[in-house]
Design a protein that fits this description.
about 425 residues, alpha+beta, four-stranded antiparallel β-sheet, three-stranded antiparallel β-sheet, 16 helices, 9 strands, about 50% helix, about 10% strand, globular, binds glycine
């Protein structure tokens, strides 16, 4: 074990010592090494994006890397491209961790490049992913007024998709006919964060109310009895009645799509942070427990927990990154054995992700290998995908913040200072 690993193993034990119930050591994550690795990959990516011309085209945003490539495949900034916010978000987190001014300059330019998304009419719920992870992180780290205003504008725009009769946001306006009603997808829980934030940072209080309503209604209808999530819930837009839960990106209507469950864990943990309503905290634990109950030994899920092809089916590192980040936060809201269980599970996931099996290293410019985008559509299967990198770096950044709070003797509820 390297010295830095030993230090973090001890720090983790000291964190878990908040629950004096167990003396069992938490798993070791080489945090300094992992952050330095991410910083190096970011520089490698920027260098490749500059190419021979030495100039970056900021209208093209890194999205994925297949196993036949070593550099990012980029997609244009447009409302239909849901992943545009992750790469600027990666740059903001890397800047936060390193203070590297070159990264700051690139984060600003890539964020500014997303302005057309703020100004365009809302296309779907993904406006939260694109604008909050770019402009939201930009405001958190710079305090610049223009970034705050962009988030408020996007929140107002997203709110126009709310149907008050149903009580949720229409996630995919383009798919109403396909699903036979008002559709709400599990991923949409993530984008409530922008609405909660806006309501507390100069926006209308109505934004809080609709985010609360969406989380509550989703909790009532979007889960099976065992707390596994459907990908899609369909409602009657005129009466608000729940029609059915069904699948889109998972294996089938009754399976547990790994990233969908990950969005649920993150979404309800965040909703508890924003509302202090303990029903959401209890629910976050139930959906987390369901996910944790059926993981492979390496803590990285198959793309769908119920794919009959397991163990031959692909893993989804992106789900693991989302869950690791949210379990760190969830662990900070509770005490005792359960807190340590979530914290240790997150560390095990991060330890697995930093292993050669999942780390991209010299293979390509991303942080991580082995994510799955949309398996049923045959898209991005066993790829490096930018949102895996975003939530991985967020998890590492949160872990760093938790360890710093702990060593300063501050309250373990680190999110009070860490949230956007
Ligand atoms: N939000 C789309 C996905 O998780 O693939």
């Amino acid at each position: 074990m390297k010295l830095s690993q030993a230090v973090y193993a001890i720090a983790a034990l000291s964190f878990s010592g908040l629950c004096s119930c167990s003396a069992v050591k938490s798993p070791a994550v080489d945090l300094d090494n992992s952050l330095a690795y991410c910083h190096n990959q970011v520089h490698k990516s920027l260098s490749a994006l500059r190419g021979d011309s030495g100039t970056i085209d900021y209208s093209m945003i890194p999205r994925n890397i297949s196993d036949s490539s070593t550099t990012w495949h980029c997609r244009p900034v447009c409302p239909e491209e849901w992943c545009s916010g992750f790469w600027p978000g990666v740059l903001w987190y890397d800047y936060e961790n390193t203070g590297d001014k070159e990264i700051l300059a690139e984060a600003e330019k890539y964020t500014d490049a997303l302005r057309p998304l703020v100004d365009a009419p809302v296309y779907d719920h993904d406006l939260g992913f694109t604008v909050f992870l770019s402009y939201g992180n930009a405001y958190r780290l710079t305090g610049k007024e223009e970034y705050r205003k962009a988030v408020l504008a996007a929140a107002d725009s997203l709110a126009t998709l709310f149907n008050p009769t149903v009580g949720t946001i229409l996630s995919w306006p383009r798919n109403v006919e396909m699903f036979g009603g008002h559709n709400t997808i599990m991923d949409n829980m993530m984008n409530l964060e922008m609405l909660f934030w806006a309501s507390k940072n100069g926006g209308n209080s109505y934004l809080y109310d609709i985010a609360f309503s969406h989380a509550e209604k989703t909790m009532q209808h979007h889960f099976r009895d065992d707390y596994s999530a459907y990908h899609v819930s369909v409602y009657n837009p005129e009466t608000g009645d729940f029609i059915r839960g069904c699948n889109h990106q998972g294996y089938d209507d009754n399976s547990m799509w790994a990233r969908g469950q990950a969005w649920a864990i993150y979404g309800y943990t965040m909703t508890y942070r924003e509302t202090s309503d303990r029903r959401f905290l209890d629910f976050a634990q139930k959906v987390a427990d369901r996910y944790l109950s059926d993981l492979p030994d390496d803590m990285i899920p198959y793309w769908d927990f119920d794919d009959p092809a397991r163990p031959e089916s692909p893993k989804d590192a992106s789900a693991a990154c989302v869950v690791a980040s949210s379990l760190l936060e969830l662990s900070s809201y509770i005490d005792g054995d359960k807190s340590k269980e979530y914290y240790d599970a997150a560390l095990k996931m991060l330890a697995s992700l930093e292993s050669d099996k999942y780390r991209s290293g010299n293979k390509n410019d991303s942080f991580l290998l082995h994510s799955v985008g949309n398996y049923p559509a045959g898209s991005e299967i066993d790829y490096s995908i930018v949102y895996a990198d975003y939530y991985y770096l967020e998890a590492l950044t949160r872990l760093k913040g938790m360890k710093a709070s702990e060593s300063n003797g501050e309250n373990k509820n680190f999110m009070a200072s860490n949230k956007r």
